[in-house]
From TrEMBL:
Organism for this UniProt entry: Morus notabilis
GO molecular function: acyltransferase activity, transferring groups other than amino-acyl groups
Keywords: Acyltransferase, Transferase
Acyltransferase among keywords: yes
Name this polypeptide is given: Malonyl-coenzyme A:anthocyanin 3-O-glucoside-6''-O-malonyltransferase
Family annotation (Pfam families): Transferase (PF02458)
Taxonomy of the source species: Eukaryota, Viridiplantae, Streptophyta, Embryophyta, Tracheophyta
Length: 436
């Protein structure tokens, strides 16, 4: 609902033979296929219209008037360094992901572009496709659908018929979405209240945090380790007389539990917080609802169809010996409840999230999902060398994605200080070594 939430993604495509003659065919094919694909995914080429209340924000697309900005650049930066998993400065990829064009004001209405793209050429190494888009146009599934479709159109030389079929074209039918709980009005009121506090662009922009000393790294978890972790957690909960068969123990749940505990412990070693503390630790995550609703939507539904969940574990339990199993139990219960009541208390999530932040309680948010494999995005030059999302900048969030090299494996992207990164890696290794 908020126009300040953004996807910011880079795809580093390795093309060792990339030279000027090859560029003359590669770049035009990228541009042409983008233009063709946006004909079907036109909300990304539109503007977000933000009128004053009581009018509703809406997306407006004018035929022949694309709001997408495209930048083409060349870089002498080290392609291999940028596409590695090891820790790198958090801002290392910033030059390759564009900012959205500035909003304009038309009377008392704000007009904001939704998408910006950048193609950065690394001579004799590859191309980086950098993308930034407003989350209001679509969730991760919608963006993933667009990227795969664009890649397929490019790979087939501009053949739009390649998108034919049940899973090809996006479904843009908003009438398919029902609102039995009156959520639209709840979120509209919250939006109007938030927008009324913005006096100028600087006040409503994302703060430029002091992250110059932070590092971004990717942890790769192979399928075998994930399965061993799942088995270990199930046994731990069985030993605690828990009916583990009723808990949802997906890869997302067990990976989230593992990373949550490692982050909490790596932070507490530094802050020396009393581990007997009963203060709550919150874990926030977003789940897709297309197939969970009473009125199921097609997987190709283009837009946002999400709900927000909060798992809670007391500090003493999260930081204790069985912290990972306890965390998995808490997250798994929330997912199980979501399957039964997907829109449960969604109208209160903004109030709850504000309360958590204002209270100073510890909280971590996970974004992404191992269900979405951006490495399937083949523009005709093979799988990307590295896919990276850069819209989170600190230790209060991490991202889970499908592994590049193994089906069933996962990649976890983190942003931490150098010292906390070292502690995190040591704790993670200790936990994984202890799995039996």
């Amino acid at each position: 609902m908020a126009s300040f939430c953004q996807h910011a993604t880079s795809l580093l495509l390795r093309i060792p033979s990339l030279n000027p003659p090859l560029l003359r065919t590669r770049l035009p094919s990228l541009k042409h296929s983008l233009s063709l694909t946006l004909q079907h995914f036109f909300p990304f080429a539109a503007n977000l219209i933000l009128p004053p209340p009581p009018m509703k924000p809406h997306i407006l697309f004018a035929e022949g008037d694309s709001a997408v900005s495209l930048t083409v650049a060349e870089s002498a930066a080290d392609f291999h360094f940028l596409s590695a998993n090891h820790p790198r400065p958090v801002r290392a990829l910033d030059p390759f992901v564009p900012k959205l064009a500035p909003a304009r004001v038309d009377g008392d209405t704000r007009v904001e572009p939704i998408m910006a793209l950048q193609f950065t050429v690394f001579p004799n190494s590859g191309i980086c496709i950098g993308l930034r888009c407003n989350h209001v146009a679509g969730d991760a599934r919608s963006l993933h659908h667009f990227m795969k479709s664009w890649a397929l159109v490019c790979k087939t030389g501009g053949d739009l018929t390649s998108l034919d079929g049940d899973s090809g074209l996006p479904s843009l039918d908003r009438t398919a979405v029902k609102d039995p709980y009156g959520l639209e009005l709840v979120f509209l009121k919250a939006w109007w209240s938030l927008a009324s506090t913005w006096k100028n662009e600087d006040q409503r922009s994302v703060l430029d945090t002091d992250d110059h000393h932070s590092l971004r790294a990717t942890v790769v978890l192979c399928r075998d380790k994930i399965e061993r972790l799942r088995h270990w957690i199930t046994n731990q909960l069985a030993n605690d007389n828990e009916n583990s068969t009723t808990l949802h123990m997906s890869s997302f749940v067990v990976i989230s539990a593992l990373i949550w505990v490692c982050l909490a412990k790596s932070e507490e070693r530094n802050s020396k917080v009393n581990k007997d503390d009963d203060d709550p630790y919150y874990f926030a995550f977003v789940e897709e609802c297309r197939s969970r609703l009473e009125f199921p939507l097609p997987t190709t539904y283009f837009g946002n169809c999400l709900t927000v969940c909060f798992a809670l574990v007391k500090a003493a339990e999260l930081l204790g010996e069985n912290g990972v199993a306890t965390a998995a139990k808490a997250i798994g219960k929330e997912v199980g409840e979501l399957n039964r009541k997907p829109l449960k208390e969604l109208e209160n999530f903004l109030i709850k999230f504000k309360k958590i932040k204002d209270s100073g309680w510890k909280h971590v948010t996970v974004v992404g999902s191992p269900k979405f494999d951006l490495y399937e995005t083949d523009f005709g030059w093979g799988r990307p060398k590295k896919c990276e999302s850069i819209h989170f900048r600190d230790s209060t969030a991490f991202l889970i994605a499908q592994s590049r090299d193994e089906k069933g494996g996962a990649e976890v992207s983190l942003v931490l200080s150098k010292d906390q990164m070292s502690r995190f890696n040591a704790i993670l290794e200790e936990i994984l070594m202890g799995l039996v």
